[in-house]
Design goal:
Layout: E1 97-99, E2 102-103, E3 110-112, E4 114-118, E5 124-127, E6 133-141, E7 147-150, E8 156-164, E9 181-184, E10 190-197, E11 203-206, E12 212-219, E13 231-234, E14 240-247, E15 259-262, E16 267-277, E17 285-288, E18 297-307, E19 312-314, E20 320-323, E21 326-328, E22 347-349, E23 356-364, E24 371-372, E25 377-384
Parallel strand pairs: 1-4, 2-5, 3-6, 4-6, 5-7, 6-8, 7-9, 8-10, 9-11, 10-12, 11-13, 12-14, 13-15, 14-16, 15-17, 16-18, 17-19, 18-20, 18-21, 19-22, 20-23, 21-23, 22-24, 23-25
């Protein structure tokens, strides 16, 4: 079965901001997501806005380098440890062994302390085996995905750096199948403490109910359409994404939505930062619950900055809450891929949506519309106030 891809048909509405959330029919599929689980079948694929207040927000390029050495042991992916003496360097606590592509061959197999490099095809493959663990590894891929798994219940991926070395200096990848991590038809997925760079998407999951993603540090995703997200859930009911950041410089990235929830009920997205989106149709966090079979969701404690087309959207969505969401310094001009189709909205709901709620949320220094279409929101609690953005994730690994 071929990996599902989206239809490229856009719904056009005769309203100013109807395109605030991109495509009307979803972004991840051309196939039947309800079909019986097959063997692994992914497609390999071979300007900031003006305004005085914006200077208070650091450019992505001024933030700490994602590849700067970390000091930690790898057991705690959140912060680097520091020595007692200022400037003291703590040596790496582990050593990686160089390896070519690897593939699981048994249940419960553990891959660890490897530097896996692949120039063709996936670097790590898990197909049909359960409870496999991939931890404390650096993965570099080109010509295929970084980690690919299918029919792999209970897989755990932790303390991993995945870098797509095949990306051009700037602009879109040559294929939408060059994801850092991709998985399908697997329950009990846990992914924690991962740094993802320059993949078509960072993490793309299809029919992985209850997936748990945490401490995700994402950089410079390259698409092309329909990819371009740090995370996309496709038919993944009950999934959770928490403690994450996505930083996508306008000069090099090729984003769509930064976080995409497609036909997945009761997904939670919380404690995150989405910084940068140059797509004319993509938004910061998108719930796209088309098809009539999915509803419910929560976005909580997420900041969106330097977004073009939109920050938080349901298109369509039903019974989704945006709680303590914050938006600032959006960009209403062309960032090199065309002007935002919405003109630069912050929160949006399509005419088909219902019972959307914005709770205890705020905004600052926006260049265009605030909320559209208010009729589909049963609560709109917004205030204008300056605020300091959440810090992006900065993970450390035992080999650095």
């Amino acid at each position: 079965m071929k990996a599902m891809r989206p239809r490229s048909v856009f719904l056009l509405f005769a309203f100013f901001a109807a395109a605030a959330c991109g495509e009307g029919d979803g972004k991840g599929r051309d196939g039947d997501a309800d079909a019986d689980a097959p063997d692994l079948a992914f497609d390999d694929g071979a300007a900031d806005a003006d305004g005085e207040d914006r200077e208070a927000i650091p450019d992505i390029a001024d933030l700490p380098d994602a590849e700067s050495p970390g000091d930690g042991t790898g057991d705690d992916p959140v912060e680097d440890e520091v020595g007692d003496t200022p400037g003291e360097e703590i040596p790496p606590s582990c050593t990686l062994t160089d390896s070519g592509p690897v593939e699981a061959s048994s249940d419960g197999q553990v891959f660890e302390l490897l530097r896996v490099t692949s120039t063709s095809g996936p670097a790590v493959t898990v197909n049909g085996f359960s409870n496999v663990v991939i931890r404390n590894c650096e993965i570099r891929h080109a010509g295929g995905s970084g980690i690919r798994f299918g029919n792999a219940a209970g897989i755990r991926i932790e303390n991993i750096s995945v870098i797509h070395d095949g990306a051009p200096a700037a602009g879109q990848n040559p294929s939408d199948g060059l994801n850092n991590i991709e998985g399908e038809f697997s329950s009990g997925v846990v992914i924690t403490g991962v740094r993802l760079e320059k993949g078509s998407s960072g993490i793309y999951l299809l029919q992985c109910p209850g997936a748990s993603l945490s401490f995700v540090e994402g950089h410079d995703f390259r698409g092309p359409f329909p990819r371009g997200q740090v995370v996309q859930f496709n038919h993944c009911d009950g999934a959770v994404l928490e403690d994450f950041s996505s930083e996508c410089p306008a000069a090099t990235s090729w984003t769509e939505d930064n976080v995409s929830v497609y036909q997945s009920s009761n997904v939670t997205v919380r404690r995150g930062l989405v910084d940068g989106n140059n797509s004319p149709s993509g938004v910061g966090v998108m719930f796209e619950l088309s098809g009539g079979g999915s509803s419910g969701g929560l976005v909580e404690d997420v900041d969106a900055v330097r977004q073009g087309n939109g920050c938080f959207s349901g298109y369509p969505a039903f019974d989704v809450v945006f709680r303590r969401t914050r938006s600032r310094d959006n960009i209403c001009s062309d960032q090199g891929r065309g002007a935002p189709l919405s003109g630069g909205l912050a929160w949006a709901g399509s005419p088909e949506s219902s019972n959307l709620m914005i709770e205890d949320s705020s905004y600052f220094n926006l260049c265009a519309g605030l909320v559209w279409l208010e009729d589909v929101f049963t609560a709109v609690d917004l205030s204008e106030e300056d605020f300091t953005l959440r810090e992006p994730q900065r993970l450390s690994f035992c080999w650095l």
